[in-house]
Amino acid sequence: MIRIIVAVDENGLIGDSENNCLPWDNKEEIEFFKRNTIYDSLIMGRKTWQSLSFDYLEDRLNLVITKQPEYWERQCEIHPIYGPWFFETIDDAIEFSKLYKAFNKNISIIGGQQLFVDAIEKDLVECIGLSRVHGAYQGDIYFPVDLSKWFVVAAFYDRTFDYLIYAKKEKEKCD
Fold first, then answer.
1. How far is CA 146 from CA 1, 25, 121, 125, in A?
2. What is the pLDDT of residues 10-50, one digit of tens each?
3. Which CATH architecture has domain 2-168?
4. Rounded CA gap, 79 and 58, in Å?
């Protein structure tokens, strides 16, 4: 299954381009993200990858989309399995992820904004896992998906964030 995994604040904010980071520090949501994406293939844009406080997310295949060719020559120089692996297109990353059976639980697109747009426009996404972090934060990057075309199929409520799973309105189920 190909899905989007994203955290937003109550206004749909997902990032702060000035500091290249999440606008909040929510340890509970980060731990939930880790549990929710273990053994997934994670597809992310270069800026999202650069915003990580480490070179790769362990126990996940890290696939980075970039138009900058200098990164393509750096395949897997950090970790021989987890990557990061660099690709020019989301389609190339998806095909590559299918080669790794150990990381085929899900293909999770984790940002950034343009990658979310591309995945939706190409009709690649089956569901959206959205963490709504309580509060309003400062930043300038917003989740670009119109959720009115999706419906909630499951929800989990926590002290500091809510997790909603959305499926396309024409689908009845999203695992």
1. 20, 25, 12, 13
2. 999 999 999 998 999 999 999 999 999 999 999 999 999 88
3. 3-Layer(aba) Sandwich (3.40)
4. 9
Q: Are 29 and 7 in contact (CB under 8 A)?
A: yes
Sheet holding 150-157, edge to edge: 85-87, 61-65, 41-45, 107-111, 2-8, 127-133, 161-168, 150-157
What is the distance between the alpha carbons of residues 53 and 61, in angstroms, rounded to a whole number?
A: 17
pLDDT, one tens digit per residue, over 84-119 is 889 999 999 999 998 876 666 799 999 999 999 999
How do the residues of the chain divide into helix, strand and coil, expressed in percent and rounded to 5?
A: 25, 35, 40
* Helix ranges, the chain (H): 27-37, 46-51, 69-72, 90-97, 113-121
pTM: 0.90
Residue 83: name the closest of 108, 69, 103 by CA. 103
Residue 160 has pLDDT above 70, yes or no: yes
Which residues are registered as beta bridge partners of 165? 129, 154
Would you say 132 and 4 are in contact if contact means Cβ atoms under 8 Å apart? no
Domain limits, the chain: 2-168
167 CB contacts (<8 Å, ≥6 apart)? 126, 127, 150, 151, 153, 173, 174
Is the CB of residue 117 less than 8 Å from the CB of residue 144? yes
